[in-house]
Amino acid sequence: MTQKLPATPGQTIxxxxxxxxxxxxxxxxxxxxxxxxxxLHGTVFDGAGEPIPDAVIEIWQADEHGVISQSPGxxxxxxxxxxxxxxAAADAVGNYQFTTVEPGAGDGGAVPFFxxxxxxRGLLGKLHTRIYLPECDVESDPFLSSLDSHRRASVIAxxxxxxxxxxxxxxxxxxxxxxxxxx
Amino acid sequence: MSDEAxxxxxxxxxxxxxxxxxxEIAARQKSYQAKVAAGEPHSEGAELDFPSYRSSLLRHPTKxxxxxxxxxxxxxxxxxxHRDVAEVEADxxxxxxxxxxxxxxxxxGQVLDGDGHPVRHQLVEVWQANAAGRYIHKRDQHxxxxxxNFTGTGRCITDENGFYRFQTIKPGAYPWRxxxxxxRPAHIxxxxxxxxxxxxxxxxxxxxxxxxxxxxxxxQSILDPQGRARLVANYDHDLTTPEYxxxxxWNIVLTGAQRTWTEPEDAE
Lengths: 183, 268
Known about the structure:
The structure holds two protein chains of two kinds.
Chain A lengths: L37 E8 L9 E6 L24 E5 L5 E6 L12 E8 L6 E6 L9 H5 L2 H4 L5 E2 L5 E2 L2 E2 L9 E2 L2
Parallel strand pairs in A: 1-8, 1-9
Antiparallel strand pairs in A: 1-4, 2-3, 2-5, 5-6, 7-8
Chain B lengths: L17 H20 L28 E2 L36 E10 L9 E6 L24 E5 L5 E7 L4 E3 L5 E3 L2 E6 L8 E6 L18 H5 L4 E2 L10 E4 L2 E3 L14
Parallel strand pairs in B: 2-11, 2-12
Antiparallel strand pairs in B: 2-5, 3-4, 3-8, 6-7, 8-9, 10-11
């Protein structure tokens, strides 16, 4: 019935977003004293294996019970309300980190993940990926089970000895992260 | 090694000429037009693999994107509201004690989904250079003046009908180091959330009739002229405030997988 409107094209985030997009508390979805607080961290790399310092990584996730928050407050956090959204700018050596909780499975029982939107200077649009938990049930998930083990490894975080989750994002190359197309 | 973050003060710092960049762009457009003429569909997005923008060489995926059906979380978006964004943040001309220099403008438009429904109560963020083409950023070394009354960053929440509105200063063009004598057309960076996370977008809004359009590999990374036109605002004299500010109108369309659109509960 309605005619599909053509999409507005994306463009690069460029190098000068630093005064605009990052904000205080952007990477802290929960307080570090939260009993289930978890560090999700890693490095973003370009096709030469060099870290990307001018990148923004955003995560969007359910809470530990699988509930999707529709509470505002991701920019002005009150330290208690879980909004499910986090934004981190990579540092000078390409590292990012979030303090959050593990996403829980929702009602449908789908394998939970952190949804990711990624931007950097040099990238002429956005990239989406997912970060799955190390213990995820690969066989029960149609996306994970459709990937060969090498590609699949690029979307599953690893558990560090300190309990944190490590997820490196590689924009290009043999170890390239699996990026998603939803259309 | 190109680096757009370091602005060239030495014209010999980069050796690739504008003529070479123009040839590269023309070749890509020719091959695109041939594909369209042969019946392939139009592609109105930016090409991620676009070597004329030198910084993209190592920063685009070389493997195909993996098609997936979005999961529930991806069909929702984070909620933002006036708890997050104060109304005054939409006016980039009142963030300091004095008035910024430059041409005062209003930029407004509607954020819509692909079916034309408004994207209500969502976050729009902008950042831009000042009237002289200088960003407040330590890596911007362009020898143009900073404006102590202009930071160049704003936010707003779309209204009930999906409208955003910013008051700001028209940004200047600025040089960068992609190639010798490279200049970016004046633009405002936009970061927008849709009703689904799949619709997340960061883009740039340009001003009509900019002579730098054909020369700019970032703008020309959109091979389809209709696609490029979607990033150019329209001057709207009805939006212009007498003796105060010029008006530009620019709508943003976020397509992509989403939940079924519903009328708001308080609709008439």
